[in-house]
Predict the structure of Glucose-1-phosphate thymidylyltransferase.
Amino acid sequence: MLEQVKVSNLYNLEQTIAAKIFEGVTYPWEVLSKIGDFIIELGKTLPEDEYIKQGEDVWIAKSAKVAPTACINGPAIIGKDAEIRHCAFIRGKAIVGEGAVVGNSTELKNVILFNKVQVPHYNYVGDSVLGYKAHMGAGSITSNIKSDRSLVTIKGDAEKIDTGLVKMGAMLGDNVEVGCNSVLNPGTVIGKNSNVYPLSMVRGFVPENCIFKKQSEIAVKE
């Protein structure tokens, strides 16, 4: 597990404007505390012919589509050709990648969405990193804090990693598909190209190229 949950095995860093935040980082959750400051510094360097600065520390690509009913709090960057739909709520510290979709009543907080990510229907994504073309089905959410407020631990079959974080949602690798109305518990890490069945409750680590049917049944894709 230790190798598979590393940044290098989860993400194609060519598919995010935030690649530099991962420099010198082993595990993706290590960037969560840096997202806000990183956005402010990156935003200052974005070309004015491609991005418009709105409000306080919000940069929106001119090619992005933003519904008039959407709420975007800074710091935030909305990438080229992204779509922010009706009543989306971006609470701040959010990077929305190129061509990504943030849908109706979806809420984001302290997240990095790589290019082409889709969180299009009633999703909550907090303290999380979603890889290239990751997709969360309608109503699926990341739970980012344990009920007892203890530190989040990443758990595999025989290993565990202490994150040192009170708040951590999910780390989804590239091309992950999460079924409708699923809950990703704090500290969930899903390897690239894996699928999660609808109505699932996911906890811990799901390897790449697998199908999560239930916690005791994870099948390798053939």
The radius of gyration is 16 Å. The chain has a mean pLDDT of 96.
